[in-house]
Queue: 2 jobs
Job 1
Amino acid sequence: MNFIKPKIVVSKCLEFDACRYDGQLITNKYIKMLKEFIDFIPVCPEVEIGLGTPRDTIKVVNNKDGKILFQPSTNTDLTKKMKTFSDAFLSQLENVEGFILKSKSPSCGLKSAKMYVSKNNSPSMGAGDGLFAEQVRNRFPDFPSEDEKRLNNVFIREHFYTTIFTIADFRGVDTMKKMYEYHSRHKYLFMSYNQALTIKMGRIAANSSGDKFEKVRAEYFQELLIMFKKRARYTSNINMLMHVMGYFKSDVTSNEKEHFLSLLETYRQKKIPLSALTSVLFSWATRFNNRYLLNQSLFSSFPMELMGQAKSRFL
Ligand code: SF4
């Protein structure tokens, strides 16, 4: 399967530049490996607003007067500069599929930046979005955005990879025919996420009311983003597996069916990975040369080389 490279905005200090406040670069093995498969757009908002490297620390002050980005050593409020930069940077992005941002940063942290109640010495009170991250969420509310630390979780990582490569694949949809093919190719992957939404998107792609292509495309894309806002659930996966198994009900032997159903039960009990079942289905699709199923992204939703990093779809 050929994969379109997703365009991902990434905090520059993650594997790209030693631009942290202390002059350090953060190594991240996942981002390192992803470089081959992704068009990264590295950005360091703090350097972009003119703070040097190394630089004095800054913090988010969040209280009844609002939320500001503040540098205590120079007594400088950096909020306006950061908002102006973020707005300009984010508004010129085209065809971006997602974001990977540095954890805990007062600028880039997604829900993880420490919040302080006052400019002076005060303990932090919980965590929230850094100022740049907040603008990312405002402008791209339904797009995949991940905190680099969360990528250590295999389930989150695999979901993120599936999401960005499937969304990137939509870039090539420029006709109704291609939208129909896209929906068809991802149908069982979508079903593993949300069956009701899969049906709704199928109706949009069918365009029975004859709306203009651009309108239909925008509507479909919005639902696509919503589809991936939550990870696939066990119940949806089981439902999807039963559907796919239905293709072979008169081809495989009763022993094979029994074996599959017993695997399904074991999967239901969360004792084996999903891959134990998808690999059986894939081998049947190969054996009976079911081209439609062999073409399904369900069996490979992102490059195989990244599989070693993300086995959970299969966990
Ligand atoms: S976390 Fe963001 S602002 Fe801080 S160094 Fe990294 S890229 Fe720059």
Note: The first strand starts at residue 7 and ends at 11.
Job 2
Amino acid sequence: MASSDRAVTATGLVKRFGDREVVRGLDLTVPRGTIYGVLGPNGAGKTTTLRMLLGIIEPDGGERTLLNCPHPRDASDRVGYLPEERGLYPAMKAREAIAFMGALRGLSWRAGRARAATLLEAAGLGHAVDTKIRKLSKGMAQLVQLLGSVVHQPDLLVLDEPFSGLDPVNQERLEALIVGERDRGATVLFSTHVMAHAERLCDRLAIIAGGRRRFEGTVDEARATLPQRVHYTARDTAAELSGLLPSDAAREGDGWRFELPDDGIEALVARLLAAGHGIAGLSIERPRLHEAFVRIVGPEHAAEQPR
Ligand SMILES: Nc1ncnc2c1ncn2[C@@H]1O[C@H](COP(=O)(O)OP(=O)(O)OP(=O)(O)O)[C@@H](O)[C@H]1O
Ligand SMILES: [Mg+2]
């Protein structure tokens, strides 16, 4: 990959707070024009990593580039950012708050106000154009802040837990906004621990735990780290099958669940049919990203504890 094809690179990033190393030699490459997820349990180091990438805090080791700039702040006008800690000026009207965020990234006030109205309308907040931030609900204010992070049409959008605090309708709107930004040509880097969003959105993802990268690849590659799973229901649901099924087979509802055998399902089906059990139901499924995440992260990192 040519360096111009990478929106973000990090090699060996390290961050210490006191004597505690919370990011421990992290590598990350975000290809341009992709939606990239940073997944990890609470305390994994996601926010710390994003802040280092953006130059809000300095790493204690390693290197990073942002839109090819070795100093992330040089790319500032081409970046949009929704921080984990939300906040807008409560006395500003929604439209002004968005234009103001654009102005901080070099957009003219006039263009910002015009785009803000369009963005609010498209986000279903057309009625709130002239509403003061303090009068908006928490989720609505978060949406306004999100629109403020895209109003200058950044090349890179960095969103830290953007879905938290949004109702299901607004979560869907946000998913559409993220896809729209990618389709416009932007790169979107976001953190989450809600696997359903990541599964639908991410072109690639990194799973981090304990400040280290545990996985990097596509959603399908993450799901393929676990074996496929078979659900089988015999015609006679009470039939005793334990001798015929793989040793990990366990009862589930009327049927059985087990891992897909290494040699596939055909030999097993042949044995079941020969023994007269028939097939009332049979499915082979890849585990969801959620299960892959839990396995990759491991129980010891269910939530990282600050010392
Ligand atoms: N300014 C700070 N001073 C001291 N420790 C910090 C600071 N910021 C973060 N930490 C610690 O660093 C670790 C990683 O925190 P970070 O906020 O990066 O995690 P996270 O993956 O974003 O978690 P979450 O999912 O809860 O947002 C945590 O143990 C946290 O307590
Ligand atoms: Mg965080």
Note: The longest strand covers residues 6-17.
